[in-house]
Amino acid sequence: VKVLGHLGVHTHSHVIIYDRNNGAFAARMWWMMRSIGHDTVQVLNGGFAQALTEGIEMESESLAEIEPSNYEADVWGWETKSMTEVEVDLLATDKLVIDVRGEARFNGEVEPIDLIAGHIPGAVNAPFMHNLNPDGTFKTVSELQNHYKALLGDKKSQNVTFHCGSGVTACHSILALEIAGFDTPALYVGSWSEWSRNNKSIATNE
């Protein structure tokens, strides 16, 4: 909230977020803003690269000093899961835990960030990059619907928890579900970084 105020964002502001990383970081900020009840926030489809492709006007000069706002938020509307709650969900037949990291990290073949390679036993892998076309834009609504309907099966999206390495790229898939018209799933914020550092069971597909 302090950052939003520093950036001059008001509760009624229409915020558009973009990045240079396939929307992963933009989606995380989108998720955080939606979680505190800011509904007029969007992620620029395709990010900075697509903006260049479409000829959107750019500038490199420093902007005038921004007048801070007194942004206030006292609610958290979107569900997060703790490590203990994820353990419980893994035992429930109507729940699903989805890891959005790349296949090589999920399988335990490589681990460029955390101390231990592998994945949470019982989690399924659905890399967030599968949400995108080759040009970095999101797939169509119908393509995303078909992808996640096949993944979820008979499970309701509100009974699904997404995670990744540190709780960032998982928000990309939460955004994809939003685009596809599903109810909002939960986020396991601690993700693999927390799980792998707490003597929990670890699985690999090597």
Question: Can you describe this structure?
Answer:
The protein is of the alpha/beta class. It has 8 helices and 7 strands; from the N terminus they run αβαβαβαβαβαβαβα. It has helices spanning 2-6, 24-35, 47-53, 83-89, 103-107, 141-152, 170-179, 191-195; strands spanning 15-17, 41-43, 80-81, 96-99, 124-125, 160-163, 186-188. A 5-stranded parallel sheet has the order 3-7-6-4-5. Helix 2 crosses helix 7 (170-179). The longest helix is centred in the N-terminal third of the chain and has 12 residues, at 24-35. The chain is globular and about 50 Å long. The model has no long low-confidence stretch (mean pLDDT 96).
Question: Would you spell out the secondary-structure blueprint of this structure?
Answer:
Layout: H1 2-6, E1 15-17, H2 24-35, E2 41-43, H3 47-53, E3 80-81, H4 83-89, E4 96-99, H5 103-107, E5 124-125, H6 141-152, E6 160-163, H7 170-179, E7 186-188, H8 191-195
Helix pairs in contact: 2-7
